[in-house]
């Protein structure tokens, strides 16, 4: 079930998937909405696996303040995001949908972990994906040459996924690798302090084949966690 469904299509559905992206620079070679593209693709796969399920429209904005030094960034405050997620959970509950899986394409959404923790008291009703474990597993399966930390933004993994999903959206001539493993003050100073292009990673090593393997692995790994979540009851 997606945005084209009617209310009758949702009768008996008890789980929803909410893709959450971001609107922030992804170097000069990837779209501003890269995280949202990835989140929608993964959420769609999971909704198919656990059908019937309600695939909600993408929430395109989240916490991206570290990218504010580049044009195009739109970032929501922590309190705003927490309110939106809480309102979504409450609205779904009125429809009889008791479980929500948040699929975040932006690894910088650390705040969502705490939001979900609060919403799961006194009973579990919200799951946040992918976890660090899911990302690391997908990196290994897809043969990504570095780690999620070393290839953290607009690098080999994200570029590979966009090459697979929307090859025409990648400006290959603009790709430039940036190796910046030491970023202790990133959340204080922002991305601009560590990269002129906005990239931290190795986009030159990307390929559509790696993107396909990466997305498949991410769907497979996160599906295992969703299955555990469903079985809680």
TrEMBL record:
Keywords: Hydrolase, Metal-binding, Zinc. It comes from the Bacteria. Its EC number is 3.5.2.10. SUPFAM superfamilies: Creatininase. Its cofactor is Zn(2+). Gene3D superfamilies: Creatininase. GO terms for molecular function: creatininase activity. Belongs to the creatininase superfamily. This is Creatinine amidohydrolase. It comes from Desulfofundulus luciae.
């Amino acid at each position: 079930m997606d945005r084209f469904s009617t209310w009758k299509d949702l009768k008996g559905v008890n789980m929803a998937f909410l893709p959450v992206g971001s609107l922030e620079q992804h170097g000069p070679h990837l779209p501003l909405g890269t995280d949202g593209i990835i989140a929608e693709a993964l959420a769609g796969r999971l909704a198919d696996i656990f059908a019937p399920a309600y695939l909600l429209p993408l929430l395109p904005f989240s916490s991206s303040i570290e990218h504010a030094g580049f044009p195009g960034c739109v970032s929501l405050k922590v309190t705003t995001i927490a309110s939106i997620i809480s309102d979504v959970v409450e609205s779904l509950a009125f429809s009889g949908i008791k479980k929500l899986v948040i699929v975040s394409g932006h690894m910088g959404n650390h705040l969502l972990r705490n939001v979900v923790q609060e919403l799961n008291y006194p009973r579990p009703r919200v799951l946040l994906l992918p976890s660090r474990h899911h990302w690391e597993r997908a990196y290994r399966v897809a043969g990504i040459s570095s780690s999620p930390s070393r290839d953290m933004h607009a690098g080999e993994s994200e570029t590979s996924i966009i090459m697979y999903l929307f090859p025409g959206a990648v400006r290959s001539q603009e790709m430039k690798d940036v190796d910046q493993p030491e970023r202790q003050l990133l959340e204080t100073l922002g991305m601009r302090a560590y990269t002129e292009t906005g990239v931290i990673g190795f986009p030159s090593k990307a390929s559509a084949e790696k993107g396909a393997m990466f997305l498949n692995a991410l769907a497979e790994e996160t599906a295992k966690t969703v299955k555990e979540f469903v079985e809680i009851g």
